[in-house]
């Protein structure tokens, strides 16, 4: 029945082919004269909020401004690709190269972010997991005690209903579930939103090798990891339609699926929100919104009477705020921007998942089939392409990057976990933690106070035997990666001083806090245990990386530096939901401290990274934020009805 209902909704590909719609605007002359809400950014959270506001307030208008275009978003592995896992450059992505990381041999991070309607949900790896309950409880701790009395709670109990609301999960068929051993618990789901997740009807033949190996290591096999309990071996849904196997993303579920019935919903593409303006001071909002046409560089201002919501992502939201004169006063002065509001946390607190890998070779014959190499066989590849177009879809093209992973806590990784945790507590107590921060942090005591508060929370998380420290996903092949889920190092996002309208400068500062190396070291040692298991030895497995000759801690750390992935494309936390006196940018109501009528709703508001990829959390944040905004504005607008107007900049 669930599959039938999903089919009745229609193919995501059909929705995509129906675009663009008349509601899509591409120039100023197409805009109406009155907007009640303006949203900067048509990504995962921005589109979620726009959908809910236009539904709740049919008499109120919403303008959503998106840098990119609108169009079909291919899955991570769709025809005509024949090489599974191959990275593809895309005009629908922003490509960032970070500054060199001096603590990791001056190597740089490569980071992608969505530049299309749908944002990163339209270009990501489609891995659709949620964090542990302890991650979101840590968000509440980050705001304590200052936020304790707020009615807006961001702990697990406060956000879990929005995880459920934000996605429609479809159970696999009984045959598929039995074939692959899939397990799930529908109590973790229950939404009816046209954002879909499912477990694919195909796995590569060597997929069970890693799962059996992890079972050999004594890892708990979890029935369901989306309900808040996430320590163990997990099945992970992917963000695709259960019938067509096409990518499910916010541009489809929160725009294409609804815009025919939303005359109050305008989407302006190929335009950049450059800044917000407070002509009469930050207590007299909402601000004007300055917008630039990417076609002719024309600037114009739009006013509104309700809220301006910045939802441009962890890398572009701080850029909009900094161009607006909202950010660290010292940096703004260097950039030649008048300081409107001194908020040192804007563009600070940058975090991302990173980590090295462990690899091996099989020396004994095996009969794994099919494998990705079979896609090089024209007959197999043709059948795979034909299967993708069947209803329901079948075969290799129903896969994304992975849908199985382990999430293990530090106490279950190393018996020396308290040595690592006590080192964190000591650097908090003796004040040395500040020495590992960016130089401009040291001129601001609020950033140092916030960082020390975060480290204490992370130490408590790492001590918890139910809170994951490592993620290691697997789909096929002879390697696994070790994701550091709770990094201690902090980077920055700053405007490009040569041209403020260009992409901002990322300083990742990976492993600048040396405890990150302690944790990476523990993770690599843990994953190396895979090689000696009965399952691996059945195939004569030999370790390739780090390799048998790499044994000392010093040699292993050097291996980590040489084999680090600096970004798993999960940048966050650059407009953190923390008290202003601890370097925070927004409160639990997501309103910018000291800026009337201005909100941030995207992954920049997280104070700490969760133990997950970010897409599912982005949807949940958008759903919760929308409910908060709807509650606030459900009563009549205060004062007389002001018409929002267009003004030349």
Automatic annotation (TrEMBL):
Example GO molecular function: oxidoreductase activity, acting on CH-OH group of donors
Signal listed as a keyword: yes
Species lineage: Eukaryota, Fungi, Dikarya, Ascomycota, Pezizomycotina
Active-site residues, as the UniProt record annotates them: 570, 613
Identification of the protein by name: GMC oxidoreductase
Record family assignment: Belongs to the GMC oxidoreductase family.
PANTHER family: DEHYDROGENASE XPTC-RELATED (PTHR11552:SF115), GLUCOSE-METHANOL-CHOLINE GMC OXIDOREDUCTASE (PTHR11552)
Domain Glucose-methanol-choline oxidoreductase N-terminal: 114-137, 313-327
InterPro entries the record matches: FAD/NAD-bd_sf, GMC_OxRdtase, GMC_OxRdtase_N, GMC_OxRtase_C
Gene Ontology BP, a term: secondary metabolite biosynthetic process
Organism of this sequence: Zopfia rhizophila CBS 207.26
Stored Pfam families: GMC_oxred_C (PF05199), GMC_oxred_N (PF00732)
SUPFAM superfamilies reported for this sequence: FAD-linked reductases, C-terminal domain, FAD/NAD(P)-binding domain
